[in-house]
Design a protein that fits this description.
By secondary structure, the protein is mainly β. The chain has helices at about 1-20, 45-50, 55-60, 80, 95-105, 105-115; strands at about 35, 75, 85-90, 125-130, 155-160, 170-175, 180, 195-205, 210-215, 220-225, 225-230, 240-245, 250-260, 265-275, 300-305, 315-320, 320-325, 340-350, 350-360, 365-370, 370-375, 385-390, 395-405, 410-419. The chain has three domains: about 35-130, Membrane-bound Lytic Murein Transglycosylase D, Chain A; about 155-275, Jelly Rolls, CATH 2.60.120; about 300-419, Galactose-binding domain-like (Jelly Rolls), CATH 2.60.120.260. The strands form six sheets. The protein has a six-stranded antiparallel beta sheet with strand order 6-5-8-13-10-11, with no helix packed on it. Strands 16-15-18-23-20-21 form a six-stranded antiparallel beta sheet, with no helix packed on it.
Amino acid sequence: MKEKWLPTIWIVMLLVVLVGVVPAGAAPEESGIVHIVQRGETLYSIARRYNVNVWTLARANGITNPNLIYVGQRIVVPSAQATGGTVHIVQRGETMLQIALRYGVDAWTIARANGITNLNYIYVGQRLVIPGVSAPRPAPAPQPAGPTTWPGPWSAEYFDNIALTDPPYVTREDEAINFNWNSGPPAGGMPVNAFSVRWTGTFPFDEGTYRFYARVDDGVRVYVDDELIINGWRDGGYRLYYKDVALSDDDHTIQVEYYDRIQVARICFWWKKVSGAAPTATPVPGATATPQPSAEAWLGEYFNNENLEGDAVFTERVPAIGFDWGTGSPSPEVWRDGFSARWTRKIHLKQDHYRFCARSDDGVRIWVDGTLVVDAWQASNGSENFCGVYWAKTGTYDVKVEYYEHGGNALIYMWWEPH
């Protein structure tokens, strides 16, 4: 009798075991949005993009090892975490700081959500997830746009080095200085990085004041009749320089020098006549005159000491304070370590509380109309935001940012937003 029931007992035990088994690779329930894994992505970068904890993402997809995902895999992002954001498509001329101000979000919050470690490195057409925002704020006032027609032609000399060292690799005529080589070479056979170019042209001008513009990544110098008017001869992301110059009714020779060190290579150069405007005094390095702060850009002054002492060794105008010099310096005239800088401009604010912030390596201070709002004048590794709140009535305010670099890496980002 015992032997008769033995097979039945074994069958019942086997069924119990099978019912209790839960497949380890069970397909996730698609209750959120679905992300298709692209080449080079990791589960960590995907989690940052959607502002989700990586283990929440792993559990939702039955993943036991977050290092083991593959191209083409469907990753379900839980809807509770994936909602409450919007996607911004990067437009030509935009910076991360401008995008952050537009949406009222901290720039580093956007960077972390998209796996970005350097705020200077975004590109046209890039999809940026803006966490916690359902609709954009009104766009800020646009930067000066390029002209519908570009001045030219130019006699161009292309060099396979960054110092314009003869002989040129290629000489040719360029119709305009309006190039986005991205990561490609400027001419056949030339290197994609570490090259330089010199453009020269003579053009007729009516008497008046002209504003000369240069947008560039990396370095640029502009001469009018052999006088240096723009000196941005340093590494850096895409940025704008300009200078007003009074010219006589005559032919004038313009020379533009450019170099690219690494990554993207871009330059645009043009000018326009400024109706009834007096020249804006922007001193070249070594000059003693100090121009007034501009409502359109920051005036930057750099000193070869940590205490902003003496005369500036280099000055420039920049549209935003967002620099990551690494172990380099802002300009050949400025030391790599032990330097300081001051940026000033006027800004218009509506009545509200505003949060002024900076991230720096090393020290930073921010004044608004003479009130010290941020005081972090100490060594820092650039991993922390320093912020202060200022109450403003509707009007124009003087803003001053001071910075010093002691040693090692050098970076500073500064922004403000309604609080």
